[in-house]
Amino acid sequence: MNYFSNKQPLLNDIFSRYPGSPQGKRSALMPLLREVQDAEGYVTEDRLHEIAALCGTTATEVRSVMSFYSTYHTTPTGKYHLQVCATLMCALAGAEELWDELVSELDVQPGEVSSDGRFSVQKVECLGSCGTAPVIQLGDEGFYENVTPKRCRHLLAALRADQKPAPDNTIPVMVNSAGLQVTYSGQAAGAPVEFLRRLTDTDLPAPPPAGSEVKK
Amino acid sequence: MTAPAPPVTPRRPIVSGTDPRFVPTLYAHVGQGGSHTLEYYLRHDGYMGFKRAVAMGPDTVIDEIKKSGLRGRGGAGFATGLKWSFMPLKDGRQHIVLCNADESEPGTFKDRYLMSEDPHQLIEGMLIGGLAMRASLGYIYIRGEYVHAAERLWAAIHEARANGLLGKNILGSGFDFDLQVHRGAGAYICGEETALMNSLEGLRANPRLKPPFPAAAGLYGLPTTINNVETFCAATHIMNYGADWHAGMGTEKSRGMKLFQISGPVKRPGVYELPLGTPLRELVYDWAGGPTEGIKAIIPGGISCQLLKWSDQVLGTPMDYESLAAAGSSLGTAGVTLIPASASIVQTTWNAVRFYGHESCGKCTPCREGISGWMVKMYEKLGRGHGQPGDTQLILDMADNIGGRSFCALADACLGPVLSSIKLFREEYAAAERGELIGAGARRWREV
Predict the structure, then answer these.
(1) Which CATH code for domain A8-68?
(2) Residue B234: pLDDT band by 50, 70, 90 thresholds?
């Protein structure tokens, strides 16, 4: 059974994002891999062939692209695929110890799936959440941020009960209700955005002098 | 390279976030309820900058961007207006604008919140860029891990399309432009502009040989210009408030506001919008509350920048492109990270080297064998306490054979932390050659 055979609207949506040329068709390769990976947890050989046919290329080419990226998998992953950021900023917040804890607590190594089928783990590079380190990403879903030992225990307990907590989207800094940034000591600084004079489309700079179009 | 200073600057430039005249714009709405919706954006005069750009016309828009002194916020700091002017004028081909939202430099996490909390600001910036560069198609290449931000972007694009802000004849201007989001899948090298284009074309993300430069032959062989998320957002505000406003912040050659990120052992890590030229000390102490433990080194602009030693003098450095270069490092993406005194510099650098080893695309030998192979192995040896006399010298010799010899900048980026850490902390390397590591095994994972 082909994965995409009964998903024509999805295919139309994906292919419509790129030009209709052979080159444009090939651009759909990554989104198609993503669809399969999200639905099945990994990408099998059959799916590689299916995607290759859709994109007008060969399975070898698809495999070559797929192997380049770290978020596609050729082996099954658990229901909850936990990716731990191990890059410097998270390491400075204890990511290595967090990783050791996960591996021993879940009794699973990278590339394996825990015996109950729930968990797999992967050490990944920077997830772009350095202000809220350490961080775990769940599969192709949200981040769990500021994962302290206590929060880690809660996360695992919730996942074992198949009660996936809502991901964090901690926004580290924002302006206060008056539109001002606040220093650490609590002092409001600067001015709010309303302070600036917004220019309008009648408020234009003088046109460039004649002959300035030649820019190189 | 950058735009000339405005003819008359009646007031002294703004070089501190605590200056009463400084106004955050990029992050003015980040974190406010509903800030990602079109309704909120329009309520706050959204898309007025684009309307002004339409009234100005493409050439004047490029001149305004030049005059503003805006430089690329992705790390390289190339003058944005000049870059936009490289696009061919009337060549009959379709032009493309790309947004680099790969944000994979460790220590960098500013674009993520711009996209998830204020996506219309980016769409408007790309509309302005598209108008100025006569483009009719735009792609936002967002790193795969930013699932939430990608969802918010898609939703914002659908809203914009439904309201005539994307598509044909936008707001009756006669300008056609459509925008798409392409998600990456976890590869640092996709932040390199030509690797990003290969990735978008469904190829392995190896960088391409330049020339041809993207403005001549980029995505699908068409004239393409690529800018960072923050650069496009800054363009929106330059249209909103004028080039003179933007040029009134920062130092002579580094103008405007910048999103600074700070991470590591500091009381309040996060993203702070400050004018360029703000002293490092102000960011670390006034905004982030100061370190939570003793610090020995600082990375000023993402992991590829040279380390700086923690000192009064370094803390006094104004954070702009020139001052940080003069201090021996670079502004990069302005992702500041503090390295605690309790951490081993050798192990810290090992972490950075391992990152580059993992992210090397494998295209060229100096990087594949030099970084992913030898450099990682040498640091593993030192970092695990198996160092031997001469190891540091061997690393330096290897660096000599890697630096400037690789196909793209990734290998040189790796040498930033390697060479600077050896230069500044030679004694720790000497100790590591005897198998001694400072602070090794210290527990860092704790309850807050």
Answers:
(1) 1.10.10.1590
(2) very high
B305-346 tens-digit pLDDT? 999 999 999 999 999 999 999 999 999 999 999 999 999 999
* Cβ contact, residue pair A190, B60, below 8 Å: no
- For chain A, the domains span 8-68, 80-170, 173-216
Whole-prediction pTM: 0.95
Domains of chain B: 38-247 (3.40.50.11540), 257-340 (3.10.20.600), 345-446 (1.20.1440.230)
Nearest CA of chain A to the CA of B183: how many Å?
7
Give pLDDT, residue B3.
55
Asked if B337 and A92 come within 8 Å (Cβ–Cβ), the reply is yes
Residues of chain B contacting residue A34, judged by C-beta atoms under 8 Å apart: 144, 183, 185
3-state secondary structure chain B: CCCCCCCCCCCCCECCCCCCCCCCCCCCCCCCCCCCCHHHHHHCCCCHHHHHHHHHCHHHHHHHHHHHCCECCCCCCCEHHHHHHCCCCCCCCCCEEEEEECCCCCCCCCHHHHHHHCHHHHHHHHHHHHHHCCCCEEEEEECCCCHHHHHHHHHHHHHHHHCCCCECCHHHCCCCEEEEEEECCCCHHHHCHHHHHHHHCCCCCCCCCCCCCCCCCCHHHCCEEEEEHHHHHHHHHHHHHCHHHHHCEECCCCECEEEEEEECCECCCEEEEEECCCEHHHHHHHHCCCECCCEEEEECCCCCCCCEECCHHHHCCECCHHHHHHCCCCCCCCEEEEEECCCCHHHHHHHHHHHHHHHCCCCCHHHHHHHHHHHHHHHHHHHCCCCCCCHHHHHHHHHHHHCCCCCCCHHHHHHHHHHHHHHHCHHHHHHHHCCCCCCCCCCCCCCC
Q: Which residues in chain A show pLDDT less than 70? A: 172-173, 207-216
